[in-house]
Amino acid sequence: MPLDTPLCRLLDIRHPILLAPMGGISGGALAAAVTRAGGLGIIGGGYGDRAWLERELDAAGEARIGIGFITWSLARNPALLDLALTRSPVAVFLSFGDPRPFVAKIRARGAKLILQVQTLREAREAQELGADLIVAQGTEAGGHGTTRRALFPLLPAVVDAVAPTPVVAAGGISNGRQLAAALMLGTAGVLVGTRFFAAKESLGHANAKARIVAAGGDDTLRTHIFDIVRELDWPKAYTGRAIANELSRRWHGAEAGLGAALKEEKPRYAAAVQAGDFETAVIFAGEGLDLVCDIPTAAEIVERLASEAEELLERAARFVASD
Questions:
Q1: What is the spatial distance between Cα 109 and Cα 101, in angstroms, rounded to a whole number?
Q2: What is the pLDDT of residue 245?
Q3: Positions in the chain whose pLDDT score sits under 70
């Protein structure tokens, strides 16, 4: 039996599955593919490259999609939100910063407001701001987040605190078992990143996708070094979970030294990105890597997640005695 949750009804989708707005990875083709498969694709606005965003919005075509922004970065270039809203997105996703300056404009254009949080306090604040959907992100997540709360203890606390606002789980989710577990904890669905990074339609480099398939959750770490070498001034509260490589083994824990060595390290890093050399360049990925074993289409990923969760939830009913 198909899953039917408040997320499905809120966004008019068949499956309670959202594509995480991974900067530089979640482009228009991937977002459109997730939407066509019955979830909602969300393009990652990244660090404010207008030409990139315009191109990826065009690549999504007529598909119903959302658009996600790093909130502190959007505050430096708010015109990107205006651009996004001209495309009538289903939803706008904001994370990592103060969303208040943008809420009224998003609501005025009829888009759903999705706010990602990492703590119970942030969840309550998101509800007070009128979020249509709250994403609770655990420290297992790939890319940026905090080291404050693991996902499964955080989820039921957030669900209880903000009811009836629907909550979505984010952090290390790669298969239907985790979708089923998240639903049992009271959420309305899941936000999936790393699993979709390794989709055929993602903008990720082929070498990065191969590395994701080969790596496991034990191979990841949370670190500032990839932001330092790229000279991105992320707020100190947020680290990035990535697959460990030669660069992280050399500089993690020696961040001051990396800062002093940027004259040499920054061009070396840029060259590695161009060459697809991921012993130096970053691959942001979550702890769910152990469950990412191939590079299918986005539609195959959505179908696997949904069908496995449906089967498991139906099977779980058998554990309850009838008398």
A1: 15
A2: 97
A3: 1, 321-323
Question: At which residue do the structure tokens 């460990």 appear?
Answer: 244
CATH 3.90.1150.10 fits domain 6-203+294-319: no
pLDDT, position 2: 84
pLDDT score recorded for residue 264: 94
Neighbours of 268 (CB within 10 A): 13
User: CATH 3.20.20.70: which residues of the chain?
Assistant: 6-203+294-319
Report the helix count and the strand count for the chain, using DSSP H and E. 16, 11
Strand order in the sheet with 143-145: 143-145, 239-243, 220-223
pLDDT value, residue 319? 78
Task: Give residues with Cβ within 8 angstroms of 97, minimum separation 6.
Answer: 70, 71, 72, 73, 74, 75, 235
Amino acid occupying residue 274: Q
The answer to whether 211 and 194 have CB atoms below 8 angstroms apart is no
> What's the order of all strands across the beta sheet hosting 65-70?
17-19, 189-192, 167-170, 133-137, 112-117, 91-95, 65-70, 41-44
